[in-house]
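Whether sequence alone determines local backbone shape is best considered at the level of individual chains. We regard such an encoding as a compact summary of how the chain folds. The sequence in question and its structure tokens are set out directly beneath this paragraph.
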Amino acid sequence: MTTLLLASVAGTLAVLAGVVRLAGFALARRQAGLRAAISQFVEQDAAPSFTTDPEGEITFQNAAALERFGSRGGQTLSHALNEVFAHPAAMLARMQQKAAALGATREDLVTRRGHVRLSVHQIGEEGFLWRLEDMAERPMGGRGAETISLPMLTASRSGTILFMNESLRRIVGERVRTLDRIFIDLPLHPGEEHEIATPDGPLRCIIAEIEGPGGRSEIYLLPLPAGRVASHDPASFEALPVALMRLGADGRVLAVNRAARALLGQIAPEARLSDLFEGLGRPVTDWVADAVAGRADRRPEVLRARRGDREVYLQVTLSRMVEEGKVGLVAVLSDATQLKTLEAQFVQSQKMQAIGQLAGGVAHDFNNLLTAISGHCDLLMLRHDKGDPDYADLDQISQNANRAASLVGQLLAFSRKQTMNPRIIDLRDTLSDLTHLLNRLVGEKVVLRLSHDPDLKPIRADKRQLEQVIMNLVVNARDAMPGGGEIRIETENVTLTEDLKRDRATVAKGDWVVVRVIDEGVGIAADKLQKIFEPFYTTKRTGEGTGLGLSTAYGIVKQTGGYIFCDSVVASGSCFTLYLPAHERLALAEPGPVAASGPAVPEEAVSATILLVEDEAPVRAFASRALKLRGYTVFEAENAEEALRILEDRSLAFDAFVTDVIMPGMDGPSWVAEALKARPDTAVIFVSGYAEDVFRDGRPPVANSVFLPKPFSLSELTATVQNQIRR
């Protein structure tokens, strides 16, 4: 009997196990079918979507998730969302637990990239569907604000309500047009309590306001529970999509919401406002005291946040508030980094423009003075031989005048007002010719090494000016290595497939020839890198540098159509990189240089008639005497109008016009063009302290003319005139 009973029980248990197993299989099939159906449903959703198991492992990604995050199969959702949220694990666990209890939940979150909404739905008993919706492009003052549970409105400067979200319409009971229909105690004071009129009677709220474009303001309301003294609502404060901080009367930080933490980063406990910001121009504690006293209420200040990872500028507005009988402050923060960058660029542009104008004016006046000094010095030296006791003094005057002219030339190079003589050149040949001089410059302690791209493309530049750039960079590299070391000059072809943006400059895509000058020196501190190309700024000790070497290099490179950048590490060395436009090789040689350079004029007298036009009397006197000493007949005019009156006499035949470019009234090119209509075969020599954009691409505006830059010597003037007449 007992055996039969046991057999019956065993059979029953076997049947029950089979039923349970079949039920499990059926449940698994239903779960799999449900997951498959949901996967098919969300596959084409524009928002990234994932399904996960209870441990958070990803079991499916739709197309949008694959495109944004790549394949994440076998990984946890927390690992996939690390690039969106700082620490997603705790948040995901909290939302999954809430979805398991309620079936679904969602949160609106602020990230570094903007606002996002993360929602989760439970799938069956052991799965979850996650959806990440980007809300960055939704205007908070429009339809996007309808999704915010916080009451808000947008108002004009005159108090007209332009928009109310659904949450505020439910509280007020209707759509109203002006602020005075809602707020009983105008004007509004952000951070303080205000009463609003509702169908159920007055309701007290804390106000937050953020100014928008066109005088519009977004106003957010934090309703206070009825019958309670106004106090801070941590949940609403945290979720508010405006960066806010609550401060004590002493400036101590009491609370920081999520949006503010995204701007400021990690904030130490018990931190004060003065610990977070700098750049006010006076102690931050004084500003806080003024705001608490009501003397600086709602006056914004742009401050630099003390963040080690990056430079952030914030516009900070302090508003006084009274909470539970205590005076405090609410700080409203908005990112002003881009505005500050644009301001810095504008200031730099204005400074460079002022320096350029100064350089042009200095060059014009100084070069006239130097021409007169060096010219009359040359005249005196003609009357003294080298054994004369006065000859050494005259030679010193001449050398120092040339040094002064070189300094003016460096200023012109930076301001990009010098006259260039661009030609197609091969950098390998140029650097090879320069190697001997560079080795002498660097001395015995420094090793100079050159490395070239074997297929280096040619460039179009002024060879003499480009040599000046290389010499300046090499000399700086040498000075950065007082104990010796190695300087490397490298060249290569670079093709940019897209625009290169760095150091506030944009290098257009295309073919470039890159030159690098690399040293192993002391390096340049990061805070000084942005100033090294400014005139008269130097990192060398007093008396060791003029501060014009790099500014000269900058001006020459920019005038050539190129770019120059610097990368440096303190105690490791610096690398200056030049981007110069590449050119195709030309089968035919380009025309010869426009500036005069030729053999010295023979001493025998020559017969020719010159019309000399120069508004500076000392320069005109020197030039006239120099030409007469060589046997020329010289007619003088102090301006273009006088020159044209002289030319009205048709009996006078002129072999050459020597004229200044910039003069009061009609300039040199204008009167010469007029004169050549009647005298087309006359040679033309232009002289000037700077060309001021008269000479395009280094070529004078009148055919078959040449340009002689001031200051010029006696021999340079007479040689140029003679070479032009003999053409």
Confidence is low (pLDDT under 50) at residues 136-143, 227-231, 587-605.
